[in-house]
Amino acid sequence: MYGTIARLRVKPGSTAKLSEELAKYPRLKIAGFVTTMLFRMDADADECYLVVAFKDKETYVANARDPKQDERYRRVRALLLADPEWHDGEIVWSERAVILPASFKVSSMG
Fold first, then answer.
1. Which of 72, 74, 75, 82 minimizes the C-alpha distance to 48?
2. Is 69 exposed, middle or buried (0-12, 13-18, 19+ CB in 10 A)?
């Protein structure tokens, strides 16, 4: 997998709008898109880190060059105080936790 970690300086009061904008991405069915997460820092509510993962570098770069992605980026950028600090790279390890529903019961296999 391949992706980016970006440091974002969010305009005061715009974190909810930023979250709403980013929440659209999974529904767009972007080729190679795996996941995205937005972290808001405890020390500064206007500082966030965005993590984005794609299945490989090729799909990541193709998305970055897509004019539709540029439009999406401009909507996000309007909510920021400055350009993001991008840190692109290969994801060398990742694991997902399995979240079971509250109704799930472990049965004894005597």
1. 82
2. middle
CA distance 105 to 11: 45
Domains of the chain: 2-90 (3.30.70.100)
CA distance 47 to 39: 9
- Beta carbons within 8 Å of 34's beta carbon, 6+ residues apart: 1, 3, 53, 54, 55
* Cβ neighbours of residue 16 closer than 8 Å, sequence gap 6 or more: none
Max Cα–Cα distance, the chain, nearest Å: 61
Tens of pLDDT, residue by residue over 33-91, are 999 999 999 999 999 999 999 999 999 999 999 999 999 999 999 999 999 999 999 99
